[in-house]
Amino acid sequence: MTQTQAYLYLAFAIGAEVIGTTALKASDSFTRPWPSLLTVGCYALSFYLLTFSLRVLPTGIAYAIWSGVGIVLISAISWVVYAQRLDLPAILGLGLIIAGVAVINLFSKSVGH
């Protein structure tokens, strides 16, 4: 597997996790069956896809990207879909997460560029 393929699997894993977390809010504490099933299914798919990226990418790096990008996307979706506002410190913190992911991908020798 190439590094490009590993990142593609990681992107799909992030997408599945974001869908699952969005459905988690809609599941209403697992009291609504369809959003609950979507949550569990997406989380399982996310972890399954993540395992493929771990064939090439170091675990810590892949997990940092997976969780960091997921946090930022979920925050943006929650802002738009659920009207959950972000204050300035939250936005600054999310910016730092984005900066951290960028630093890892652009400058870390651990990624194996």
From TrEMBL:
Keyword Ligase: no
Bilayer-spanning residue ranges: 7-24, 36-54, 61-82, 88-107
Entry-linked Gene3D superfamilies: 1.10.3730.20
InterPro entries found in the cross-reference section: EmrE-like (IPR037185), Small_drug/metabolite_transptr (IPR000390), Small_multidrug_res (IPR045324)
Key words, A-Z: Cell membrane, Membrane, Transmembrane, Transmembrane helix, Transport
Compartments (UniProt record): Cell membrane
Keyword Iron set for record: no
Pfam families in UniProt: Multi_Drug_Res (PF00893)
Domain of life: Bacteria
Membrane topology (UniProt): Multi-pass membrane protein
Sequence similarity: Belongs to the drug/metabolite transporter (DMT) superfamily. Small multidrug resistance (SMR) (TC 2.A.7.1) family.
UniProt-listed PANTHER family: MULTIDRUG TRANSPORTER EMRE, SMR FAMILY PROTON-DEPENDENT DRUG EFFLUX TRANSPORTER SUGE
Name used for this protein in its record: SMR family transporter
Species for this entry: Massilia agri
